[in-house]
Design brief:
By secondary structure, the chain is of the alpha/beta class. The protein has helices at residues 35-45, 59-62, 65-71, 146-157, 172-182, 187-201, 211-217, 226-236, 243-256; strands at residues 6-12, 16-22, 26-30, 48-53, 75-79, 89-91, 96-99, 104-110, 119-123, 126-128, 133-134, 137-138, 164-166, 209-210. The longest helix is centred in the last third of the chain and has 15 residues, at 187-201. The model has no long low-confidence stretch (mean pLDDT 97). The structure holds zinc ion.
Length: 257
């Protein structure tokens, strides 16, 4: 059993991250939307691919799976959704994706909202959450309702504070600008924006982010807090009945922002 591993980003498309869990010999990848950068990474680093995990069916997260399997016939963990092909292990809430090469087991959390079958994988203080929770933001609602997405984000926010959040895209700076429009008095957002601006200036990912900071600064996780609710009420120009309505207003506002 080898429990010394690390997680590295493999860049794909404009702003996708394919997260690679690896040690000196083996690698597992999360959401390989494109096979080529993964194959290049494996060859350069002399790694053997041992597993693929998928969070949701969008092509920029699963499009590379067939070409990866042609070169590396490995297990593929993915939710029950026919729109994802070549899956060996369909997973549902509470299932566990074992990654024996790294001595870790990732628990599946169903988080509908961005899509209706979106899942996250959580274990060893790592959260792979695809396009549901982003650095200071959240995914768009393509197939789900605000009620579903709000509940999904609440499940993720209930994980331990020291959880490292590995999101599917580098959206943090844009999300921070929105966060500051919603909650301009929050000093955490200013500090986070300075840090993220410097990281992007030197071409480093702003991820993983820390769940403790998401809970204190990400407006989409703070829909019940007075400052965030007041900003949503001003934006809507109407009274809002509770956190789910606040969430719905924030999500629409961000779409226009
Ligand atoms: Zn997506």
């Amino acid at each position: 059993m080898n429990s010394s591993f690390r997680v590295e980003p493999i860049h794909a498309f404009n702003d996708n991250y394919i997260w690679c869990i690896r040690d000196h010999n083996a690698a597992a990848v999360v959401d390989p939307g494109d096979a080529n950068p993964v194959l290049e990474y494996l060859a350069t680093e002399k790694l053997r691919l041992t597993a693929i995990l998928a969070t949701h069916h969008h092509a920029d997260h699963v499009g590379g799976i067939p070409a990866l399997l042609a070169a590396h016939p490995v297990r593929v963990f993915a939710p029950f959704d026919d729109r994802i092909e070549a899956v060996s292990d369909r997973v549902a809430d509470g299932d566990v994706a074992e990654l024996p090469d790294f001595g870790i087991a990732l628990r599946v959390i169903e988080i509908p909202g961005h899509t209706r079958t979106h899942v996250a994988y959580y274990g060893a203080n790592l959260l792979f959450c695809g396009d549901t929770l982003f650095g200071c933001g959240c995914g768009r609602l393509f197939e789900g309702t605000p009620l579903q997405m709000h509940a999904s984000l609440a499940r993720l926010a209930a994980l331990p504070d020291d959880t490292r959040v590995y999101c599917g895209h580098e959206y943090t700076l844009s999300n921070l600008r929105f966060g500051r429009a919603v909650d301009p008095e929050n000093p955490l957002l200013r500090a986070w924006e300075q840090e993220a601006t410097e990281q992007r200036r030197i071409n480093r990912p702003t991820l993983p982010s820390l769940l403790a900071r998401e809970k204190r600064a990400n407006p989409f996780l703070r829909c019940g807090e007075p400052a965030v609710a007041a900003a949503a009420r001003r934006e809507a120009g109407a009274a809002l009945a509770g956190p789910v309505e606040v969430f719905a207003v924030l999500r629409e506002w961000k779409n226009r922002f």
